[in-house]
Amino acid sequence: MEIHAKQVRPDVKNRADRARMLISCPDGPGIVAAVSHFLHQHGANIVQSDQYTMDPAGGMFFMRIEFDLPQLSVNLLKLEADFEEVASRFKMDWSLSAVSRKKKLAIFVSKEDHCLVELLWQWQAGDLDADIALVVSNHLDMKDYVESFGIPYHHIPVTADTKKEAEQRQLDVIGNDIDVIILARYMQIISPMFIEHYRNRIINIHHSFLPAFVGGKPYAQAYNRGVKIIGATAHYVTEELDGGPIIEQDVQRVSHGDDVTELKRIGRTIERVVLARAVKWHVEDRVLVHENKTVVF
Amino acid sequence: MEIHAKQVRPDVKNRADRARMLISCPDGPGIVAAVSHFLHQHGANIVQSDQYTMDPAGGMFFMRIEFDLPQLSVNLLKLEADFEEVASRFKMDWSLSAVSRKKKLAIFVSKEDHCLVELLWQWQAGDLDADIALVVSNHLDMKDYVESFGIPYHHIPVTADTKKEAEQRQLDVIGNDIDVIILARYMQIISPMFIEHYRNRIINIHHSFLPAFVGGKPYAQAYNRGVKIIGATAHYVTEELDGGPIIEQDVQRVSHGDDVTELKRIGRTIERVVLARAVKWHVEDRVLVHENKTVVF
Amino acid sequence: MEIHAKQVRPDVKNRADRARMLISCPDGPGIVAAVSHFLHQHGANIVQSDQYTMDPAGGMFFMRIEFDLPQLSVNLLKLEADFEEVASRFKMDWSLSAVSRKKKLAIFVSKEDHCLVELLWQWQAGDLDADIALVVSNHLDMKDYVESFGIPYHHIPVTADTKKEAEQRQLDVIGNDIDVIILARYMQIISPMFIEHYRNRIINIHHSFLPAFVGGKPYAQAYNRGVKIIGATAHYVTEELDGGPIIEQDVQRVSHGDDVTELKRIGRTIERVVLARAVKWHVEDRVLVHENKTVVF
Amino acid sequence: MEIHAKQVRPDVKNRADRARMLISCPDGPGIVAAVSHFLHQHGANIVQSDQYTMDPAGGMFFMRIEFDLPQLSVNLLKLEADFEEVASRFKMDWSLSAVSRKKKLAIFVSKEDHCLVELLWQWQAGDLDADIALVVSNHLDMKDYVESFGIPYHHIPVTADTKKEAEQRQLDVIGNDIDVIILARYMQIISPMFIEHYRNRIINIHHSFLPAFVGGKPYAQAYNRGVKIIGATAHYVTEELDGGPIIEQDVQRVSHGDDVTELKRIGRTIERVVLARAVKWHVEDRVLVHENKTVVF
């Protein structure tokens, strides 16, 4: 279909020379000066820079820098190699990536389609700057729809008995070059083994304003508690159910007149928007994780 | 002071003939017809009417009616007496009150002043249509300020050992004609004995988006969990800590850069606004309680 | 595709006997009593009732009633005929419709697809209780996509010279049984002749928080003015450009860092949500128009 | 009164050595490197740094840096002198100020008290890190209240005939060391002569979501237009009425049931919150003005 083909947005500039750097390290004097001096010396021009110091005295320092470097593809490797000296001086965790190298996504889905539909729509509209490499599902419902976008759809049923084998099959079809896995209302608990492979690289959307209403049927829980606002939460998956680092949350007002069906209907739009924002921020290298919290630049 | 004296708002109309009726009963056919017919027969004109049916089949029915009745003060007693027949036919819980009869408030406060200051400001601005009969505190901090409004201030210290006696003293100074007690950041747990005296008539402001972060230090809990939105909750006090029927909630977006001190600062304004709305709705007879939930018209 | 077929939501109850009534009339005593008495006498059970009086003294009265009447299809005509007496007594504008009779929609679209995609998604998800009878466009872009849902797509080009003929062709393809026309980012001004045919039945989405930024390029206007919040507005179309009765608005916070492209991206989600809400409310008979304003129940 | 005396917040750290720098200049390579290198060389430790480039190619560059410098009071003058070289190299507009040197505020008010009360409350609560040097009013209403805080109150009546003299008297009482003037619902138009003295240093709160409803009676305008959301806007005052650079805006949902009196009541809280935020950001050196827009860090 025509609509599915327009994946090149006309207003996206040629960004072949743009790169992003993420840094986490213990705070100390001279970090910003050292990094910006290093980039300047190597001919890079800083376009955007954000930083955050958790606590001026002895805390952690986080930084995201977006810069342009002429002939980036030629110079990136040398830049990385040269930066090692700065990084080791300040004991940095760091990463550097060319903006032109799109992140590769695997989307997991069950039967509820709204989050998947939203991601696909934002992707074909050019708003999600990533490649959707494949979709994995324990159901067949979305197969035709996903394949109409030219995206491979892997149907891998999961039962209590076959869970281990199913996860292995998932890891096999995902392969080795997926950057991030999106659980777009995938109603299965991920095993610690699987999580370990993708530490801070699995994003889940939970249909409540966490930490309220952890676990199953959060809209029914919300209805029973009589809350006046409902929400949704996108977070990285950890071994603790619905307990991982929160990337984004949003909410909407409801009233006594909204029953569970209506809460679900209202919630679907919150879920869509929150998950899409979190995925966008992740693929734009805006999210750093420290212990169980995120820094979002 | 001049500012404290302007308690009569010029734009408030003469509402001597206005009354409000609250009704809860099992749902069934003909309730609206019976009530509106009754009021019409007695010469009342319905100005505003709200209703809600929890579930069309066999659920509960809730109604709030605001009406004008000529010479209300003369006719109110007869109206109440005559309504008994309708009420018993439909097994109604109901109440009827003249708008001109202002609700009497007792405000409990500890050291944090912002919620009390807000209520006093809204009251003197004419936005809170109630009488603030007295303030009770376990501290002396707000004494001069409260008394400058001409409002009695009762300093009743509370310790673990004296709690029972202190609550008895509180009940004594409150007396018998207080309609509702506002816990405006009153940092003491209310005993079941005390709650029993004011069932669904004690409003607390909790400084989190309940049911998240029940109990002490909710802003520190929110900071540690890394939430992206904080909130406050006004609810009726029950025996379960922070577990009573929610009247109102509101939230505000925060970021990783906001430490606990900043969360508290942002939260103070949410708390003020949420508590003031809940109190306003209560004194305007807009809140009905059913089991552990509220209907807010 | 499977996704497009599930237009019957399993949790929608059998509502064959449910109807809705909308009433506007000069305020006066006894209206609620008369209407509810009438319905009760005819065996109807009121499920939901909302009313609003613009000004107690001599203003307008608005009411929406949802009720169940056994064997509605058999009894509806008699109910309508009998209600004439009540209606003429109070000089009512009124309408009565069976909930089971879905409203018929015509959607107009140009090249921007997001609002159309949203409406189609909500429709196939069962959240939009209406029939999408046809789509009209001055471009071919969305043809395949719309037809994949089994919905007729009428391509009617419009130029300055052919506008009159084009509008006549539009009226022809719409025919006589369309209830409401949705301008889902249809970038053509509708002529007074056309509007007259569908008074208060054409819903437009304007991509600004009206009345700010009337007319073309509202996101560029918003950027140039440096606003900190952007919005979208759904309104009925009148002869005054972007000046008709507002049905719904919503907003989102932006920052100095958001350029026009980013404002458009953020705005697309606001537009989608606001238009979908307005259409939902219209087809559920929740919107009454009085002069240039709406009452939304 | 006790409440008015607690102007020292216990949790405010000793910030004697903290300073802030604001920079605006044409964008170009090496700015961040030069500034951070300069600060590092002088022994300063960057605590927070924000930057924004309006357009990577040939646009403007804005930066805010918060840093600690040992013995700041001794070293500040030398730092300023040394920075001249960097500043002239990049054609910077810049300013540097010690955090311990509080900004001095003059507040102008007429009869509506809510914005003034909010600023005074935030100030005494320690949330507004500034000195309120004096209050100027064309009315006497707030005199006693303001003076109870120990703040001088200057009553300067203004009529069409005496406007020029009145403004001169205002300038006289303000003197030469006021940093910023807050129009806290001061219902007089400021003359170009007066504005010229305090370019980008007069903050007004307008009681609408600008640019909607410029000028008088914005709540009545909003009611007549039938908007579903109302707002307030804090902006710097320029010669164009309600047309200056916007610092902050916020909004709240309203309904058809809210008349002008209710819109005003709801609006008062929006106004209070928006103005307080804008003032806070201004005194914390978070706002840079470029042409008719603000950058808020």
UniProtKB/TrEMBL annotation, chains A, B, C, D:
<keyword id="KW-0658">Purine biosynthesis</keyword>
<dbReference type="InterPro" id="IPR044074">
    <property type="entry name" value="PurU_ACT"/>
</dbReference>
<keyword id="KW-0378">Hydrolase</keyword>
<feature type="domain" description="ACT">
    <location>
        <begin position="20"/>
        <end position="101"/>
    </location>
</feature>
<dbReference type="InterPro" id="IPR045865">
    <property type="entry name" value="ACT-like_dom_sf"/>
</dbReference>
<dbReference type="InterPro" id="IPR036477">
    <property type="entry name" value="Formyl_transf_N_sf"/>
</dbReference>
<dbReference type="InterPro" id="IPR002376">
    <property type="entry name" value="Formyl_transf_N"/>
</dbReference>
<comment type="pathway">
    <text>Purine metabolism; IMP biosynthesis via de novo pathway; formate from 10-formyl-5,6,7,8-tetrahydrofolate: step 1/1.</text>
</comment>
<dbReference type="GO" id="GO:0006189">
    <property type="term" value="P:'de novo' IMP biosynthetic process"/>
</dbReference>
<dbReference type="InterPro" id="IPR004810">
    <property type="entry name" value="PurU"/>
</dbReference>
<dbReference type="Pfam" id="PF00551">
    <property type="entry name" value="Formyl_trans_N"/>
</dbReference>
<dbReference type="Pfam" id="PF01842">
    <property type="entry name" value="ACT"/>
</dbReference>
<keyword id="KW-0554">One-carbon metabolism</keyword>
<feature type="active site">
    <location>
        <position position="242"/>
    </location>
</feature>
<dbReference type="GO" id="GO:0006730">
    <property type="term" value="P:one-carbon metabolic process"/>
</dbReference>
<protein>
    <recommendedName>
        <fullName>Formyltetrahydrofolate deformylase</fullName>
        <ecNumber>3.5.1.10</ecNumber>
    </recommendedName>
</protein>
<dbReference type="InterPro" id="IPR002912">
    <property type="entry name" value="ACT_dom"/>
</dbReference>
<dbReference type="GO" id="GO:0008864">
    <property type="term" value="F:formyltetrahydrofolate deformylase activity"/>
</dbReference>
<dbReference type="InterPro" id="IPR041729">
    <property type="entry name" value="Formyl-FH4-Hydrolase_C"/>
</dbReference>
<comment type="similarity">
    <text>Belongs to the PurU family.</text>
</comment>
<comment type="function">
    <text>Catalyzes the hydrolysis of 10-formyltetrahydrofolate (formyl-FH4) to formate and tetrahydrofolate (FH4).</text>
</comment>
